[in-house]
Design a protein that fits this description.
Elements (H helix, E strand, L loop, with lengths): L1 H16 L2 H8 L1 H23 L11 H14 L3 H31 L1 H16 L2 H12 L3 H25 L3 H9 L4 H38 L5 H10 L3 H26 L14
Helix pairs in contact: 1-2, 4-12, 5-6, 5-8, 5-10, 5-11, 7-8, 8-10, 10-11, 10-12, 11-12
Length: 281
């Protein structure tokens, strides 16, 4: 601890005495090194894949080719329907998971016997790979958008409900005793103590659920779809269009990063740990 404090003091002194450009570097060292690392990686990739063509383009593309393919797809408009379909699947499935998992998680955490009833199903279904359920889902709802919505829903539902339930069960018992001492009823305790202390866990569950939801979109479209980013990746891969495969992967990754950052910005506003609570009858 003392060494870390000493290093921080020395860093502050060095920043204070540095020139303008070097001071900018010291204040933004992490960002600058990260950006340089990314550009170095892209340069090496471009050099190997496009400049020297050391790898067959069928197996590995290059950044310039991926950008060119992406520009062509957006310019022609062929990708917009895929984006729309995948966006709808994500919005419907993830939104439905939020409105069902959060209330059920709060209720299961608050009522002990309800927790006993749903816990075996949560354990079993959460451990079951969603891909294993895909044939049944296709039989039940077909290969249209609804089958992907169900896959997205199942992927996002369990992280959200498990985190919400854990948030309720880890509420500080001292807060509950204080509320009881002031003659608060269950509704007041739930509103003023349980719900606020559970919010950080809910936000964490949303972030985890979003990642599972994006995986569900792609996996569902890989197996049974007529449109969507996953379907586009499947067709491009089957026809050895590596550039388009990378375009689809980058779109999914960019969407995941952007949406996760939005949720994480809200998550940082709340505490991330609360001690335990056993629940009521």
């Amino acid at each position: 601890m003392a060494d870390e404090t000493k290093e921080e003091v020395l860093l502050d002194i060095s920043v204070k005495d540095a020139s303008g450009l070097y001071k900018f570097y010291l204040n933004n060292e992490r960002l600058i090194i990260g950006v340089v690392g990314v550009f170095l990686f892209l340069f090496i990739w471009e050099y190997v894949g496009a400049i020297k063509e050391l790898v067959n383009p069928i197996f590995m593309s290059a950044p310039s080719r991926i950008i060119k393919a992406g520009y062509a797809m957006f310019a022609s408009g062929e990708i917009y329907n895929d984006l729309r379909v995948s966006g709808l699947e994500l919005a419907y499935g993830f939104g439905l998971a939020i409105v069902t998992a959060i209330p059920l998680g709060l209720a299961a955490g608050w009522y002990r016997r309800l927790n006993y009833a749903v816990d075996p199903f949560l354990d079993a279904l959460n451990a079951t790979p969603r891909v294993a359920l895909l044939p049944l889902i296709i039989i039940w709802v077909g290969i249209g958008i609804m089958s992907k919505v169900v896959i997205v829903y199942l992927g996002a539902f369990f992280p959200i409900i498990i985190n919400t339930l854990a948030g309720v069960r880890t509420t500080d018992v001292r807060l509950l005793k204080a509320a009881r001492s002031f003659k608060s009823n269950d509704a007041q305790i739930f509103k003023t103590v349980i719900l606020p202390s559970t919010v950080p866990f809910i936000m964490s569950g949303l972030r985890q659920g979003l990642g599972r939801a994006l995986v569900g979109v792609v996996v569902g479209e890989l197996y049974a779809a007529t449109a969507g980013i996953g379907f586009m990746i499947t067709v491009a891969g089957a026809t050895f269009q590596t550039d388009k495969v990378f375009v689809g992967v980058i779109i999914v990754a960019a969407a995941g990063v952007a949406l996760t950052k939005i949720i994480a910005a809200f998550e940082r506003r709340f505490d991330k740990w609360r001690p335990g609570f056993e629940g009521v009858q």
